[in-house]
């Protein structure tokens, strides 16, 4: 199966290098640019994600194929309307995948990796989790609706390819109609912000219209402060990948009964039982 992301890696590397050089040649005091240790961690997280996905993609294809073959629907792949429908179906699936991975702590424990950098550049796009398993259920309905697995995976790759290029401070705002419809660097900077008014906003993939429809859109106003509300202060890839899972385990060990255990897993990041101070090491809230 053709892997669009694997073939795009040289493009990613080239664009990352060009962006880093641009900051070296023309630094901007209002923008963070690059820090070598941070960019190195992001690249290592991306490489780890690629290696893990080598095996995991086989499971994904098998599950999608099983659901697709069991479905009474099989959409024609040579019909342009099928591709248009797939685009919007993938966008909706991504929106809810992304939103729930910010609002359910056990899912946030995986996604927090992507938000753990205090910098915002093209290397940040490569900072991906080593636990991609939580994404599987969100796209299963697409196979049930009759989209073949290869089409689903290809559209996912197209979305990821687009999202790579919106991780930059070098682009301010675009033409107003584009900003209204599409996810842009400005909109996604807001999504990566730990400013209180920016938390839990702008979940879209290629489009920003779902955020406008579901009330999660915020425009970029004040300067964005990147990272987590409680940063982890490490460039160790293993700790970046696991720190929130470790925090959940600590909280589960101290929980008083199943209600609290369920809360620590299924409520939002930062949730604590009534009367418990919201503090402690390892707690990483959404940014």
Automatic annotation (TrEMBL):
Signal peptide start-end: none
Keywords: Lipid metabolism, Membrane, Oxidoreductase, Transmembrane, Transmembrane helix
Subcellular location: Endomembrane system
Pfam family, one: FA_hydroxylase
Record EC number: 1.-.-.-
Keyword NADP tagged: no
GO molecular function, one term: oxidoreductase activity
PANTHER family (UniProt xref): ALKYLGLYCEROL MONOOXYGENASE (PTHR21624:SF1), STEROL DESATURASE-RELATED PROTEIN (PTHR21624)
Name of the protein described by the UniProt record: Sterol desaturase family protein
Originating organism: Nocardia aurea
Lineage: Bacteria, Bacillati, Actinomycetota, Actinomycetes, Mycobacteriales
